[in-house]
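PROTEIN FOLDING TASK:
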Amino acid sequence: MPVVCPTILAKDARQYHEQMEKVAGFAERIQIDLTDGDFAAAPTVKPDDAWWPVGIKADFHLMYRNPHQAADVILRHRPNMIIIHAESSGDFISLAEKLRRTGVKVGVALLASTPVTTILPALDKIDHVLIFSGELGRYGGHANLDLLNKVGELKQHRPQLEVGWDGGVNDRNISRLAFGGVDVFNVGGFIQEAEDPQRAYKVLSRIAEETGTT
């Protein structure tokens, strides 16, 4: 079933708490975005300051040049998944194996300019690929639907691979994304900036589910 996954992208503890409170009552799975100030210049809270309510699955999207130290901190929080960028530095295989040993899923994000072929040699160690169509460290990105060809390419290699989308998801394009094979929709501004965040979430979930069953 398609999953609508609200995102938390907060520059400080106050904003983090506000955003979490908006979605905690209805979200089953969330994505917490963290930046290093280098790979993604916009500031966010630090890994040590991350938290989420009991009962919600939390994925961490690390927009870090070198994510290894941050990943070690996040592992102490026992997340559902850690997503690092294919464009990051460091030994991906050792990090993936560490996550697997601790029961945490392995995610890899691809920027718009990064081809799927970059990660194919390690695809058997990856649980989730995030197609990134947004703007690093910011809400309100543009959903470049041309990137759906990456979803198709990934599914050709591994039909059961979970594929996520981050950037510009709204009620006008989510059906196209779902029809294109996206499984997880990471949604920032459409939910966080809505007058009624829960209604926005339900609208997206309904459209995605209806598309997924047609």
Summary: Residues 197-212 form the longest helix (16 residues). The two ends are 12 Å apart (CA to CA). The chain has seven helices and eight strands.
